[in-house]
User: Which sequence fits this backbone?
């Protein structure tokens, strides 16, 4: 992380009225199993106003609203997927920290595999057709230079 | 007056960097090699000028000269001296000046490296580097002048962002820039090789120390930044896959690949074109990083206050250098002779695989960082590529990469024997498996990736130890069993062998530290004095909450005692929330208690009216290994730097019966 890190974080903090500290004791659900599920979901949801932070880590009031919303849906008996779908329906795909696997994210998700496969293919091609290059000998001037360097050492 | 002189020195440096670029061209055209001397002088002069400018700005900050805009915006009379100094680079203009200072410093070092780099290569390299200095100096002077005056001068400054008032700011950016900018030398060497149309083992040796030192600094800089974020930001994370972090990670990965491919080039005269391309890409990624941080094109948790003209200027710099160098590459690379056929099962074969996985990982980070931007431009869809994406794509690329590390070391150059290598590594594999299983037995029910990570880390460390022991013991007729002889030979091994072992073991240490975070735990409570909160194997008791006053802030501090489950006191921790009136900002100061390599991390939330406080507590097992491992890696790089081979023409050590430079001859 760089210097700059702290600069805009400052900006983010300035925007957020009084910064509270991420998940507050008062928000925690009574049932530990439900709380665990709530954490699982909120780790994957982005805080919409503070960029690249999960709502779990964020101090912003909107993140708090989202955390409470997640817990509210869970208390009403929604499954994890249902809660996620509900939030995506309201805030769009932008809210998911893990992008969905679909046509418009195909290149994104396939990059690692493509890079390895293309690399291997390139190596295979190279190994098949590389001609043996003749060894290039040093010119007289270069020999002299080498000798001079060796002497100095 | 000093401020104006500093401004003038910048303009002078601009002119000198132009001379630095022009002279090698002139020397080539006129055929008069003495003109090259002017390049070296210009490089030294440019460094002196930028150093003066930097000192002038520092002077303005230290003396709180509020007639300078930059000082007004980032300083305060009450601020402690260390932050007055580090505040010089805690802002866009000043950090750009530090960037160029380091750029010209590297230029001056190359100009002074008379013994290790042939003069023509040195002059051409400096010529390319001078162009980089010129463009960035132009950027500073036209869009980011740190010496702008304010009339009338205010009585008090606006103070530095409180999050930056930390010793981390004094160390982290200089280290990071030494890394980022250091790769400009590898880039300039590559461009010089393309211009000359010639590249060989001498080039590989000449460029290696620069790449290696840049890599060491970048490693330390990233680790330092990660630790700073960990304790400063208050939620205990140490890597966020934020665009700005990725911006520093990409050149690091590419630089790691470059280090390994130069070894192949030096030993086997192969991978020349690839090495040149990597050198270009590594610095290009540093430039992309600069663009990401300073243009505001990507939304990041952290970026500088942005100004569109700066973004456009940096984009133009990107196009000039990346486009220009790739065009040069396309035009001249066919001139470089390809050499060295090699078998897939050999040390160079494994180094090629290393490059393949590193480049794939780098491409993944690159695409992941820029994809949301491109997608929005093309289709208007807004998506987020967050940590879960990077974790699930980066890790599968890292695991095979780490698995081949000890294998690559165990294989010989030219033609390796996979069976023999496996036999040599059998001990490491068995021990690592045992370590993973033992951990699993103690922590059954935990995350499954954690024991795998511990096993992998152990495998890397044991593999490195075995490599040193194996080489010291010798092979075939040279093999010895006497412990004294082995120790003597181990000491006699080339420093680069030790460097490699340290660097690879350091990676293992990092992997163990990361894996152990699978067992981290967290506690959250609203506490009154006397209340307790349990986290992992420890119990924290809130002793008291008290206000305090610092030089330029007011603080609410919470004082905790940490005990183990048996009730014995382990230590005390204090955490606080600081309010900086000059900026009207509140910052959490986390409290850390280090127990071995593990830490208890306390972070204070809001203080209620009834005196109850919100407290977040984490237990982070072996977390320090993440950063200590990085230090071990950089130490390995430093050891390699002291190797005699780094100096061209250095004869192999002829001392007693010490092994020759390589136990397995390269050619």
Assistant:
């Amino acid at each position: 992380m760089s210097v700059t890190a702290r600069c805009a974080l400052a900006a983010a903090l300035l925007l957020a009225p009084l910064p509270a500290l991420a998940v507050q004791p008062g928000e925690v659900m009574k049932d530990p199993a439900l709380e665990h599920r709530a954490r699982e979901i909120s780790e994957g949801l982005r805080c919409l106003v503070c960029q690249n932070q999960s709502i779990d880590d964020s101090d912003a009031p909107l993140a708090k609203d989202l955390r409470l919303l997640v817990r509210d849906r869970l208390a009403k008996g929604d499954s994890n997927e249902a809660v996620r779908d509900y939030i995506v329906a309201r805030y769009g795909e932008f809210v998911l920290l893990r992008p969905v696997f679909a046509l418009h994210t195909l290149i994104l998700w396939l990059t690692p595999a493509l890079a390895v496969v293309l690399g291997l293919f390139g190596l295979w091609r190279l190994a098949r057709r590389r001609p043996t290059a003749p060894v290039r000998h040093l010119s007289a001037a270069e020999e002299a230079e080498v000798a001079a360097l060796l002497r100095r050492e | 007056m000093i401020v104006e002189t500093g401004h003038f020195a910048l303009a002078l440096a601009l002119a000198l960097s132009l001379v630095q670029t022009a002279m090698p061209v002139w020397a080539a055209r006129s055929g008069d090699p003495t003109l090259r001397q002017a390049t070296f002088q210009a490089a030294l002069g440019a460094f002196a000028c930028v150093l003066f400018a930097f000192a002038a700005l520092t002077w303005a900050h230290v003396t709180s000269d509020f007639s300078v805009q930059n000082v007004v915006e980032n300083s305060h009379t009450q601020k402690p001296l260390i932050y007055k100094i580090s505040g010089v680079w805690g802002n866009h203009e000043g950090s750009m000046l530090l960037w160029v200072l380091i750029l010209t410093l590297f230029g001056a070092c190359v100009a002074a490296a008379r013994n290790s780099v042939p003069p023509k290569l040195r002059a051409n390299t400096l010529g390319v580097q001078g162009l980089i200095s010129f463009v960035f100096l132009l950027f500073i002077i036209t869009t980011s002048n740190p010496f702008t005056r304010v009339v009338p001068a205010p009585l008090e400054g606006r103070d530095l962002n409180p999050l930056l008032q930390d010793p981390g700011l004094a160390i982290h950016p200089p280290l990071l820039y030494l890394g980022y900018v250091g790769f400009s030398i590898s880039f300039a060497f590559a461009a010089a090789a393309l211009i000359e149309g010639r590249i060989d083992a001498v080039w590989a040796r000449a460029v290696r120390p620069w790449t290696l030192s840049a890599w060491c600094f970048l490693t330390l800089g990233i680790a330092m930044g990660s630790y700073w974020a960990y304790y400063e930001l208050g939620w205990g994370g140490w890597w966020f896959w934020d665009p700005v972090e990725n911006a520093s990670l990409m050149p690091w990965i590419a630089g790691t690949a470059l280090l390994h491919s130069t070894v192949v080039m030096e030993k086997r005269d192969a991978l020349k074109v690839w090495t040149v391309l990597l050198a270009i890409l590594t610095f290009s990624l540093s430039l992309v990083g600069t663009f990401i941080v300073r243009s505001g094109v990507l939304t990041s948790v952290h970026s500088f206050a942005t100004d569109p003209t700066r973004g456009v200027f940096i984009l133009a710099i990107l196009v000039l250098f990346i486009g220009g160098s790739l065009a040069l590459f396309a035009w001249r690379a066919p001139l470089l002779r390809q050499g060295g056929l090699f078998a897939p099962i050999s040390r160079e074969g494994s180094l090629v695989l290393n490059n393949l996985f590193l480049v794939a990982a780098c491409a993944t980070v690159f695409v992941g960082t820029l994809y949301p931007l491109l997608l929005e431009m093309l289709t208007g869809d807004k998506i987020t590529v967050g940590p879960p994406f990077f974790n699930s794509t980066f890790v599968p690329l890292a695991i095979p990469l780490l698995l081949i590390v000890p294998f690559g070391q165990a294989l010989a150059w030219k033609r390796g024997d996979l069976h023999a290598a496996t036999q040599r590594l059998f001990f490491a594999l068995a021990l690592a498996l045992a370590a993973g299983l033992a951990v699993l037995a103690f922590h059954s029910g935990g995350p499954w990736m954690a024991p795998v990570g511990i096993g992998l880390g152990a495998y890397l460390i044991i593999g490195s130890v075995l490599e040193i022991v194996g080489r010291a013991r010798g092979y075939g007729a040279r093999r010895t069993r006497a412990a004294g002889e082995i120790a003597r030979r181990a000491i006699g091994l080339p420093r680069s062998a030790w460097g490699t072992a340290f660097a690879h073991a350091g990676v293992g240490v990092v992997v163990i530290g990361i894996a152990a975070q699978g067992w981290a735990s967290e506690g959250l409570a609203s506490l009154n004095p006397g209340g307790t909160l349990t986290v992992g194997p420890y119990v924290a008791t809130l002793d008291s909450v008290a206000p305090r006053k610092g030089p330029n802030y007011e603080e609410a501090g919470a004082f905790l005692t940490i005990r183990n489950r048996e009730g014995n006191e382990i230590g005390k921790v204090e955490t606080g929330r600081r309010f900086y009136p000059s900026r009207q900002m509140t910052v959490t100061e986390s409290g850390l208690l280090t127990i071995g390599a593990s830490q208890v991390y306390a972070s204070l939330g809001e203080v209620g009216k009834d005196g109850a406080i919100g407290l977040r507590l984490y237990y982070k097992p072996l977390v320090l290994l993440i950063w200590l491992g990085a230090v071990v890696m950089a130490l390995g790089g430093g050891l390699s730097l002291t190797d005699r081979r780094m100096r061209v023409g250095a004869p192999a050590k002829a001392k007693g019966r010490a092994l020759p430079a390589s136990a397995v001859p390269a050619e």
